[in-house]
User: Which sequence fits this backbone?
């Protein structure tokens, strides 16, 4: 039981050594020209320090939901594509199944489109 | 890599497929055809329900296993599915009432209702815990939306949010329980887990903790005490047809899963968690009934009454026999009829969205002014209280009978005492309807034809199941899970 865990321990040790090494080395040898903008976590992003409960447009939620719709779809395509050729030789079920899946996504897209979710104003 | 296609038997999920198709039609059609009447959308939903019903009947007795054991189309699942279809059918009819005019978007309403139904059907038609979980999620997410569909009302939003937060919490318990059972036995299929338990006994930390968490998760969904806190607020805030559908459907699905679980994993004779179910059943009956007495809001009263009825149903689970299973199905069908009927009358006597006439005082004298609704409410209340010759009496008789045969005499005594307590608050509604002078003029708009039709169906069914109970009971006796 304990013996099985040794590789994980080794992996942990290697990870710590590498990360500590890289951070330490950059501290030692890296050039330093600090200025306030450079020191902020997101150089060209949003203001990193401030009230956590700022308000932002509710439209972002719809964008996020659409992102899920179109992005997760791609994730499901990968394993399907891997076995596609092999299973196609056993009948067209695998093709129909994915067509059904894409069809359902299309309905979701159609709904979002017709409800005006794709327009910013 | 060696791959092969499992045996699919696509017809085993025809009912679900039909319902999904119609849910999509209902939500997409109004986007292209403008100014659709809601009656038409309701009609499309009903067509979907009828088609799904016939495809279910078609599967009866075939014992089909689809998708490599993921879907089990046994009579047990079909019987529960039919009960849910009846509930959804009545809920669609209820939604046609003028009072329920305020939902901004009927297409969303009917589509979500059908999707919730799909979730219910998925839940009961599998022994695979992950499929059950997915079914539960489809059901829950649809119901979160449905509970908050009156977007402009604070109590509806409150109901939706409370239901969502507590539901998500309960789902976590359920999933953790599934994970523990999987970790202990190496399978997520109830039958396989059952085999593991046969070999190794119902013991060990992971199995016991997993079973307990599963029980907690299902108790939340079915509103067993002490996991019932969300019920009154959610039932009060959600639109009446949604409340009606929720009270019968979710309870039924949770009980079906619990039955499958008890039956395949841990036969009660071999396990000592009978004591846990005994206590939960006792508490659920008692707390539901006693607290219901204190309610003056009719919807809240019915919420607590639904908690109490969950307790009665749990008595059938405890019986652990095929008689108990059939009794649960019978009672669930009667309960669907009388509870949806009672909520239907609430909707019937409701005035407008602002003024729903939900207080008991509002009902004073309405029985003579609206004889049809008054008669219907009286019958449903008598049935809920368990007075012969209604179906509620026969259902309770079957349930308690199965428990006595299993040797749970004291629980049955408590159950009967609870029925007596419940008679007080059920009959109080009838007293208010007929034996008091109205305090003020309560305006009741004309009810829709669909609602009256639903009330008529429910009324006839409740009486028929009380008088000619044996044919229904024989039907459900064919639907029990076989001995493991």
Assistant:
């Amino acid at each position: 039981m304990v013996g099985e865990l040794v590789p994980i321990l080794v992996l942990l040790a290697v990870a710590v050594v590498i990360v500590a090494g890289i951070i330490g080395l950059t501290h030692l040898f890296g050039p330093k020209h600090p200025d306030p903008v450079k020191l902020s976590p997101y150089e060209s992003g949003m203001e990193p320090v401030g009230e956590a409960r700022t308000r932002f447009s509710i439209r972002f939620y719809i964008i996020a939901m659409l992102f899920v719709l179109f992005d997760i779809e791609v994730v499901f395509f990968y394993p399907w594509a891997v076995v596609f050729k092999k299973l196609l030789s056993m009948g067209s079920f695998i093709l129909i199944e994915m067509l059904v899946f894409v069809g359902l996504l299309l309905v979701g897209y159609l709904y979002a489109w017709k409800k005006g979710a794709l327009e910013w104003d | 890599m060696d791959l092969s296609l499992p045996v699919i038997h696509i017809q085993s999920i025809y009912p679900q497929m039909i319902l999904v198709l119609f849910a999509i039609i209902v939500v997409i059609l109004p986007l292209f055809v403008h100014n659709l009447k809601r009656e038409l959308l309701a009609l499309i939903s009903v067509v979907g329900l009828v088609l799904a019903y016939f495809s279910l009947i078609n599967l009866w007795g075939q014992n089909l296993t689809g998708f490599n054991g993921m879907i089990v189309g046994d009579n047990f699942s079909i019987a529960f599915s039919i009960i849910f279809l009846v509930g959804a059918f009545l809920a669609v009819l209820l939604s046609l009432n003028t009072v329920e005019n305020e939902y901004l978007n009927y297409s969303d309403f009917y589509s979500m209702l059908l999707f919730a139904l799909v979730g219910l059907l998925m839940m009961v038609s599998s022994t695979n815990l992950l499929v059950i979980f997915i079914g539960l999620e489809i059901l829950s997410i649809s119901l979160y939306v449905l509970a908050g569909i009156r977007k402009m009302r604070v109590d509806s939003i409150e109901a939706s949010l409370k239901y969502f937060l507590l539901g998500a919490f309960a789902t976590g318990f359920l999933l953790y329980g599934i994970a523990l059972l999987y970790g202990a036995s190496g399978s997520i299929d109830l039958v396989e887990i059952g085999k593991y338990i046969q070999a190794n006994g119902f013991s060990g930390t992971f199995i016991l903790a997993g079973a307990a968490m599963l029980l907690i998760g299902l108790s939340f969904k079915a509103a067993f005490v002490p996991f019932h806190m969300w019920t009154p607020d959610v039932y009060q805030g959600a639109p009446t047809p949604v409340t009606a559908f929720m009270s019968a459907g979710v309870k039924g699905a949770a009980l079906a899963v619990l039955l499958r679980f008890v039956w395949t994993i841990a036969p009660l004779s071999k396990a000592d968690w009978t004591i846990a179910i005994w206590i939960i059943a006792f508490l659920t009956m008692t707390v539901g009934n006693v607290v219901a007495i204190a309610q003056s809001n009719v919807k809240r009263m019915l919420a607590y009454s639904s908690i109490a009825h969950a307790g009665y149903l749990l008595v059938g689970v405890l019986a652990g026999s095929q008689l108990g299973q059939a009794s649960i199905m019978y009672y669930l069908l009667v309960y669907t009829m009388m509870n949806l009927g009672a909520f239907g009358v609430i909707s019937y006597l409701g005035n407008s969205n602002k003024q729903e006439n939900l207080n008991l005082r509002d009902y004073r004298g309405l029985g003579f002014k609206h004889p049809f609704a008054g008669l219907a409410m009286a019958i449903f209340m008598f049935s809920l209280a368990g007075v012969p010759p209604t179906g509620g009496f026969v259902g309770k008789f079957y349930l308690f009978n199965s428990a006595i045969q299993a040797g749970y005499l004291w629980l049955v005594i408590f159950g009967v005492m609870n029925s007596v307590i419940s008679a007080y608050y059920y009959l109080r509604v009838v007293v208010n309807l007929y034996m008091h002078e109205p305090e003020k003029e309560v305006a009741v708009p004309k009810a829709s034809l669909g609602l009256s039709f639903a009330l008529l169906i429910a009324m006839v069914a409740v009486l028929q199941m009380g008088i000619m109970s044996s044919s229904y009971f024989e039907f459900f006796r064919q639907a029990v899970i076989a001995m493991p």
